[in-house]
Every structure is written in C-alpha cells, then in structure tokens.
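Input structure tokens:
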C-alpha cells in the first residue's frame, strides 16, 4: 500500500502529465482532470485490485474502473500509463490523428485499461451497473468503480441508473462524483441547480459519503468506509469535494479551464508549480 506522501508525489506527476498533454495537443479538458487527480491517484495506486499484466476487457478477477465523464481522459491516460498499462512515452500522442489516446476514451484501438468508450455524458453509470451486476452473477467478488462529474449529474440517465442500482441491490459498485461545482457554462448551481446532491443520492437508495477530494488521509478513509459498506445491499456514492484546476493557481476554482488548453507560456508557469517526481514522458 502507498502512503500519503507517495500518493502526493504521484499526483503531482499526473498533473504535470495533464498539463503537458493538453498543451501539446492544443486542446483537451484540464480543469476536471486536475480536480480529480488526487482521489483517482489513491484509487489506482492504493485501493483498486488491478493488474496491467493480466488485464482483459471482460474485467474478470479484477476491480474495474469506468470513466463516465469521458472528457477527463488526460487524467485517465496518465494514471493508466503510470500504472503500467502502456509506456508513458505514448502520452505524447494525446489527441493526435490515429493515436490510441483519443480525446475521449475509445475501445476500437485496443488501449489496455479501457473497458468502455465514453464521452456521451450520463452513460457511464449504466455501463458500470451492468458490469457490477455481471460480477455478482458470476460470483466474482471484485468491485466496480465509476467516476461521474457533478455537471454530468444533470443528465436524466444518471438517475435512471441510480434507481436500477438501488432496486437490484448492486452493492459491489462504488460511484464517485468529482464535486468541483463547475461545468463548461459556469457554476453548476447556476446552470441546473443540483442543490442537495447528498440528499438526492440518499433519496435514490444509495449509501453516501462526503470527502475532501484533495486530502489523502480523508480520501483513503472514505474508500475504506465505502469498502465496508459494500456487500450490505446498497450501492455506494462518494462525493469528492474538489477545486477545478487544483494545483495551478491561475486555473483553480473557475470553469474557464474546463475545456481550454494551456499555451506554451501558461504551460511553463503551471509546471513551475508542480514537482516532477516520476520523470516526464
């Protein structure tokens, strides 16, 4: 198991990867990728039971992760590469024509670690629910994790899937919401007004935990609590309270970096605030 200092070091490198990838491509979605870097680093490097060497798309015998908010592909690709699913040098091909690292994850190019194509918001929870139910039917004791965006939770299909999971007692599923309160058009509360997000999930029959998504001690504690709740008849939601653009002062707390790439000068300024810990690709 990784300790909190090790996780901080990894997440710093992941943020460097994100900034360099979107700058090189001239496009991408750095804001939410940065806000979710800490809790996803903890998930991939401490919590999930997964092995790149024996990975198969059916997910048998391993935990599975689904990225419902597919535009957060930069953080996903960095974590997969840093976990050993493919060489980190491939991160330099992000969003290039013919690359396996498309702007939104796809499965037709055979990139290891990708279970489901994503990008059309609202669909990932349904896919994760199916995978988790399949594991229960197969007697596979492993878990399924899925990441949603808080803006994505304006999608009706999210709540259809939420009802399905509760009704069928899919209690090997842990969903995570990157609760940074920002979406492409502004603050979530001003666009559709999610209001009491915790109360909504509880009303739909889920166990709900809240956590500071940038405090590794809290993050690991939340994952541990979620693990203890699994197998008790209800799906679990962890609401990770985060800051969009976390880690770079001029990017934090604003929706303006939801889908905007840093230019070379901004890239250098951002990288000066992020420690290189594992070596850049």
């Amino acid at each position: 198991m990784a300790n909190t200092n090790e996780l901080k070091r990894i997440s710093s490198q992941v943020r460097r990867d994100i900034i360099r990838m979107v700058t090189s491509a001239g496009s991408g979605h750095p804001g939410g990728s940065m806000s979710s870097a800490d809790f996803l680093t903890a998930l991939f490097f401490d919590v999930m039971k997964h092995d790149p060497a024996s990975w198969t798309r059916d997910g048998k015998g391993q935990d599975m992760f689904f990225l419902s908010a597919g535009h957060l592909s930069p953080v996903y690709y960095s974590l997969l590469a840093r976990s050993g699913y493919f060489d980190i040098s491939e991160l330099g091909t992000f969003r290039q024509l013919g690359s396996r690292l498309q702007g939104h994850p796809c499965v037709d190019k055979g990139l290891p670690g990708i279970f489901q194509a994503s990008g059309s918001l609202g669909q990932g929870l349904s896919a994760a629910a199916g995978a988790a139910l399949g594991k229960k039917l197969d007697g596979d004791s492993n878990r399924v994790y899925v990441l949603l965006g808080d803006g994505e939770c304006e999608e009706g299909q999210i709540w259809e899937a939420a009802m399905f999971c509760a009704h069928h007692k899919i209690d090997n599923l842990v969903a995570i919401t990157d609760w940074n309160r920002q979406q492409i058009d502004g603050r979530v509360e001003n666009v559709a007004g999610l209001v009491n997000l915790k109360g909504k999930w509880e009303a739909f029959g889920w166990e709900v935990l809240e956590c500071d998504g940038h405090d590794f001690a809290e993050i690991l504690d939340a994952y541990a609590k979620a693990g203890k709740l699994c197998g008790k008849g209800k799906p679990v939601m962890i609401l990770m309270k985060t800051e969009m653009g976390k880690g770079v002062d001029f990017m934090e707390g604003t929706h303006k970096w939801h889908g905007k790439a840093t230019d070379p000068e901004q890239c250098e300024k951002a990288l000066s605030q992020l420690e290189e810990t594992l070596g850049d690709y």
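DSSP finds ten helices and seven strands in the chain. Residues 66 and 128 are 6 Å apart (CA to CA).
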